[in-house]
Amino acid sequence: MRSARSRCSPSPGRSAAARRRPVGRPLLDAGRSPSGASPSGSSPNGAASPASSTAATPGASAPASPATDGSFIGAVENTRYGTVQVKVVVAGGKITDVVALHLTDQGRRSVQLSNYAAPILRSAVIRSQSAKVSNVSGATYTSKAYLLSVQSAQDKAGF
Q: Could you give the C-alpha distances from 120 to 68, 75, 76, 113, 147, in angstroms and in order?
C-alpha cells in the first residue's frame, strides 16, 4: 500500500501554476479576457470591433441624487428563527451606522448566531455602502433577513 505522501507529491514535469490550474482549462493569453475579446476593443483577428460609447445619450437620466441624511428603519423580515429589523443612519449621503433593532431569537443557538453575524454584517454594509454583501457562513437566515432590512432602509433613504 502506498503512503498518502507519495500520492500527494507534485508531478515532476509540471510547474506550480500548472498544478493549480484545473485540467482542461487553457491559460489565457496575456492581452485577452476570458470571453476571447482583447481589452483594446479589437477582435481576435486584429480587426476593430464596435466600441461602446461612453458619452451620455440624449434623454438619459442624470445620476441619482445623494441619499437623504437621517435614520431610516428597515422592514421587519421574518425568518424561521424569528424576525430581523435594522435602522440605517445616513450622514453626508453615506451610511455611517447600522443598528440592529431586533435579531432572530427563537432558541439559544439562533441568538448566538445573530450575535455573531450582526457585527460582521454591520461592518460589511458600512464598508461597501450597500446591502449587496456576502452572507455570514452559518447564519444564512439571519444574514439574508438583515440585508433585506438594510435594503429596505436604503430605499427609504434614497440610495
A: 25, 20, 20, 11, 12
pLDDT in tens, the chain (159 residues): 444 444 444 445 544 444 444 444 443 344 444 444 444 444 444 444 444 333 443 444 444 557 789 999 999 999 999 999 999 999 999 999 999 999 999 999 999 999 999 999 999 999 999 999 999 999 999 999 999 999 999 999 998
Torsion of CA 119, 124, 125, 131, to 10 degrees: -110
